[in-house]
Each structure stands twice: as structure tokens, then as C-alpha cells.
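Bumping with the actual sequence this time:
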Amino acid sequence: MHWFTYKDRELYAEDTPLAALAEQYGTPLYVYSRATLDRHITSIDGAFEGIPHLTCYSAKANASGAILRLFAERGLGADIVSGGELFRALRAGIPASRIVYSGVGKTPHEIEYALRANILMFNVESESELRTINGIAGRMRVKAPISFRINPNVDPKTHPYISTGLKKNKFGVPHSEALRIYGEAARMPNVVVVGIDAHIGSQLIDVTPFREAAERLAGLIGEIRALGIDIRFVDIGGGLGIRYNREEPPEPAEWAKMIIPVMKGTGCTLILEPGRSMVGNAGVLLTRVLYIKTNEEKTFVVVDAGMNDLARPSLYGSYHAILPVLERKTSLRTADVVGPICESGDFLAKDRELPLPEEGDLLAVMGAGAYGMSMSSNYNSRPRAAEIMVSCGAAELITERETWEDLVAREKI
């Protein structure tokens, strides 16, 4: 569900017309709906109220400060994958005691920073990382709280680039090696084992793989405890899908219904890591049509937003609905919606049937709240877009548009 709807043939964010925002702040422009974010927090976090749990928003989906601050105010934690995300989460007011550090490539500097901050735990992804954390914690004379990310070899039935729980993926410790590695950690003097973790992928439409992964974790918990190791947290990851096109994603309650019965008997606090499902449909990317170009083969709608603003279509071939901000009667045409980047892979839509816009029209790229701004870049020396938060009829600038001067501010000639 989201609060981007037409009123008298004009697209609004809640009670604010998107065309007015484009006029005031320019394009490309990211616009987020506070009401949508609030609704998703309530829906996802509330679905698990029947079991002790902590919802740690996956900051990689969108790490904008105002969004992190909202989640902090609502009592959420954060799942982070870099020192920069830790810095952003702490700056936004998320307590370190609600922060879980995931990712396969934590640097020594980042590990030290997280230990100084006293985060809830590290999700360790290899034996090498375990030894590094133990050594750093020893030098700092602290105990590092750890969990192991277990690769359960569960097929999430999603795009291969966002599948993370198969043997061929780079993530996690093999399920078959789990007991040996937990035993090794228990003998180390500078770590304390507190949990177990699994994350099988993103944009999952079928909840069955979640249950399969949860059952494998639950079985391991008993075996690990038999070694005398106390497991207090079980992190089941995130990955719940959203509707981009014709998908029928499950409601959070269906996700919870799969997980809670499996986990209730473990006595553990459940940790969730939703990202896309929290912010994906809470944001749109506004872009203006620059040119309509035709040749013998195709029609191209050339817009001012490119793959540097929204990488997902170029990176994954992913679908985002594209809607006219002002509806008018016009013929349907199959066209490519392309950006100004000097790459043939720069597109927002390929062979898309849509009402053919005119030059100067505004288009809204839907479902852009997740992995939009967070994956944006300065490729072709393009300043990154501004971000707006809409709430109760008011619009607030939460990230200023970069300038050309910003592009070179740290360079030395």
C-alpha cells in the first residue's frame, strides 16, 4: 500500500501535488510519503508482536537521514553493512544496542568503530572474519558479541543477483560447517557468541523459503546449545517482496505466520531485517521528458533521470511502473524510456507500452524508495538528486541537490 494516487487526473503524494514539487525543487527528484513509511512500520513490526523481537531496518535500502530518524523514533534498530551506515544510523539516533553489523567484508577500522560504539552484535560471515574480530577485540580489551550468518542452501526463487542463501553465493558460513565454527568461537577469549543468523535473498514473493530457512536455524540452535553455547538472538533476515508490476507479494502477517511457530519454542529474541518492504513503495522518482526521439526501429522517451539516479533497471533489468504526473488523453505507444547517460544500458524501461508523453511532461517512476537514492552515483559528472519528505500536506527538503561545485569539492589539481 502507498499514498501516491491520482486526484482529478493529477498524481499526488498524500495531499501534495507532485507537479508542484517538481516546479519548486527541480528534477530528477526523489519524493517519499511519511504516511506510507508509518504504515509499513506498523504492518511489519506489528505482525511479530506475538514473540519477543527487534526490527532492524536494512539501511542499505535507503540510508537517508530523515528516514533513519523516523525509524529511530518508532523504536526500530538497524541492520548495517558498512562503517558509513553505522555512522549514519548513530547520527540519526538509532541506539547502538539496536544495531546489527552484517556483510562479508568488514574492515579492521570498521570493526574497531563498531566495538567502540558497543553494537548489539556482528553477523560473522567467515572464519577469517571471526579471527580478525577476536584479535581486534583482544587488543581493545573488550568482548565482541557475535552471531554467525549461516548459509542454509535454500532457494529463494528470486533474481540471481539478489539471492544470498545458496551454496554458490558469497554470503555466510556453510550449514554443514556451523557446529565446528561455533565450537571454535566458543574457545576464543575475546568473543562471546550470542546469536545465529540467516538471510536468503531479496524480493521474495513466496514465503515458503522463509519457513524452510527458519526450520534449519531452529534445528541448529538445539545442536549449538548442546555444546554449552547460549543462543539468545535468532536473526531471520528480511527480503519480503513488494509490488513493482503484477507481483502478489505476501502481507507481513503471512511472513510472521510462517516464522513465529517455528521460532517460538527456541526462547530467542527474533531479529528481523526488512529493507525494501519498508521503503520501496514509499518513494517515487520524478523526472521530466526532454525529447521524444524516433527512428526506423524504435521510439525513445528521453528523460532527465538516468542510470546514475536509478540503477536497478540497468543492473537487474528490473521493472518500475512509470506514470504520467498529469494524465491526459493520448495514444499508447511502445517505447524505451531512457536517460542522458552515455551508455546503451541507460534506461528506466524497455519496450514499455505507455501513454506517449510530450516534451516537458513529468513522469513518476514508482517503487523507487528502495535501492534508488542509495545506489545513485555521479557517473557522467551528474549531481545526485534532491530528496523530499511529504507529510500531512507539507513537503520538507531532506537532502539538497548536489551542485557542480560539490562534484569537485574534494579534488586537488
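The C-alpha cells above came from a reply further down the thread. Residues 208-225 form the longest helix (18 residues).
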